Amino acid sequence: MQIKIQPMGYTQTNCYIVTINDKDLIIDPGMDATDWVISHTTNPVAILNTHGHFDHVWSNAELKKKLHIPIYTPKEDAFMLKEDPLSQGTPSSEPDYLVEGDATLDIQGIKVTYRHFPGHTPGCSIIQIGDVWFSGDFLFQRSIGRWDFPYSSAEDMAKSLEKAMKIKEDFTLYPGHGLSTTLKAEQKIMPFWIKEVKGR
Questions:
Q1: Are strands 143-144 and 139-140 parallel, antiparallel or unpaired?
Q2: End-to-end Cα, the chain, rounded Å
Q3: What pLDDT is stored for residue 39 in this prediction?
Q4: Strand 125-129 relative to strand 110-116: parallel, antiparallel, unpaired?
Q5: What is the pLDDT of residue 200?
Q6: Which one of 35, 41, 123, 194 is most buried, by most CB atoms within 10 A?
Q7: How many folded domains does the chain comprise?
Q8: What residue ranges of the chain have pLDDT lower than 50?
Q9: Nearest one of 111, 119, 15, 125 to 62, comparing CA atoms
Q10: What sign does the CA torsion over 158, 128, 78, 40 have?
């Protein structure tokens, strides 16, 4: 697996291109991602969204039109791609596949697992490919996603962190913003964040 990373837009949202068996998966194409993605892919097969916030889906529609590839989006966040709940002027896009809950997909022979961790958004998910998590805005290096946005939920975020605490395996984490880390490293400080989210 080859991973290319480029922070996009004023939010510096990480856009990822994951290449396996000469096939390119595009994860979270944010603001002005189109030219970079096109110049760094040779055989793009799908666009994968971790959640529906503008800075992760901005270039969905343009890339879908130019590359003729499908968009996979968590079902609970699909409305965000059209309604622009944070009022950022996000170009509207239409998911081709709505991913429900924890689900394993076969995308042209590549095993892709969505793991649902709501809280930041209703559909917030990580995308697992092999031993790598593309953690979107759920987990960052020594931090977590905000739970005070419209459609965020502190209660769901706490439950998601507790769910993540129970996972025994380790994964390399490539987050939606900032530097990579590991699940084991972040599990060490999850109890702090659970207390913060619960307001204790």
A1: antiparallel
A2: 41
A3: 98
A4: antiparallel
A5: 64
A6: 123
A7: 1
A8: none
A9: 15
A10: positive
Total residues found in the chain within this entry: 200
What tokens appear for 128 in the block?
A: 């697992």
Edge to edge, the sheet with strand 172-175 lists 103-107, 110-116, 125-129, 132-136, 172-175, 181-182
Contacts of 31 (CB under 8 A, 6+ apart): 8, 9, 10, 11, 13, 54, 55, 58, 59
For residue 24, give its domain range. 2-198
pLDDT at position 70, please?
Answer: 98
Q: Going edge to edge, which strands form the sheet with 71-74? A: 2-8, 13-20, 23-27, 44-48, 71-74, 97-99
- Among residues 47, 115, 117, the alpha carbon closest in space to that of 81 is found at 47
Distance CA 58, CA 54 (A): 5
pLDDT tens figures, 37-86: 999 999 999 999 999 999 999 999 999 999 999 999 999 999 999 999 99
- How far apart (Å, rounded) are the C-alpha atoms in residues 131 and 86? 33
Q: Tell me which residue has tokens 């400080």.
A: 189
Residue position matching structure tokens 């499908």: 70
Half-sphere exposure of 81 (CA within 13 A, CB side): 29
**Amino acid, single-letter form, for residue 42:** T
d(CA 14, CA 141): 13
- Residue 119 has what pLDDT? 98
